[in-house]
């Protein structure tokens, strides 16, 4: 039985390694595209400066959604027999550069900042920007959050688990209802302690799980708070 578990762990590690290789290749392609796009933009500035000024005066941002403060989400949570809450409805994925008001706390999806929060086993001891954290969830990360009511021993144990798990992160979050929460894109569960069996189950299911909108996308090179 131990052999089967080791094989499963090895297979998951191999899958994550392959995703990282694909991400590095995609990053190289993206850098080339960005350079090419920059050349086009510079040429546009030279030729159409007046048009550019006019469009800027309209106050339009091609990155932001129509309602920059809105999450773009619709729907609600439904709770399964295992206690995992799943968002039933739309989770928007537009990049915005403003603060976002999410309908759930902590958020499990919605419009978010173009830059993700580093989630390569990162432990944050201060609150992090929700908009960046949501982008990390889009990349397949699990986000562990806790309030001041959470026992320090549990927080320390969960931080240790995060440190050893790529595509995960932990931070304090006072607006949530339970002392300890685990979140992934579209999914969330409250756990009683770091020893709760749901902790390992949630990590195994949702770290780079089937719910991930952008599997293999990087969890490094983003924002570090």
UniProtKB/TrEMBL annotation:
Bias kind Polar residues: ranges: 1-10
Residue numbers spanned by region Disordered: 1-23, 56-82
Q: Which Pfam families match?
A: DUF3105
Q: Where are the transmembrane segments?
A: 32-53
UniProt entry keywords in alphabetical sequence:
Membrane, Transmembrane, Transmembrane helix
Q: Where is the composition biased (Basic and acidic residues)?
A: 14-23
What is the name listed in the Swiss-Prot or TrEMBL entry for this protein? DUF3105 domain-containing protein
Its lineage reads: Bacteria, Bacillati, Actinomycetota, Actinomycetes, Kitasatosporales
């Amino acid at each position: 039985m131990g052999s089967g578990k080791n094989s499963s762990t090895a297979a998951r590690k191999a899958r994550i390694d392959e995703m990282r290789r694909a991400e590095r290749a995609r990053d190289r392609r993206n850098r080339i595209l960005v350079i090419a796009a920059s050349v086009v933009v510079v040429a546009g500035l030279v030729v159409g400066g007046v048009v550019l000024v006019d469009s800027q005066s309209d106050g339009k941002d091609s990155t932001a959604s129509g309602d920059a403060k809105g999450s773009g989400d619709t729907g609600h949570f439904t709770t399964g027999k295992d206690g995992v809450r799943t968002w039933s409805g739309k989770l928007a994925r537009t990049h915005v550069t403003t603060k976002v008001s999410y309908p759930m706390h902590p958020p499990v999806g919605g419009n978010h900042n173009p830059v993700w929060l580093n989630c390569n086993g990162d432990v944050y001891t201060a609150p992090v920007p929700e908009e960046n954290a949501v982008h990390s969830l889009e990349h397949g990360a699990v986000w562990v959050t806790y309030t001041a009511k959470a026992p320090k021993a549990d927080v320390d144990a969960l931080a240790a688990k995060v440190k050893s798990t790529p595509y995960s992160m932990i931070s304090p979050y006072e607006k949530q209802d339970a002392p300890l929460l685990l979140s992934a894109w579209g999914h969330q569960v409250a756990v009683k302690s770091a020893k709760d069996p749901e902790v390992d189950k949630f990590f195994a299911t949702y770290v780079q799980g089937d719910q991930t909108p952008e599997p293999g996308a990087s969890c490094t090179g983003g924002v570090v708070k």
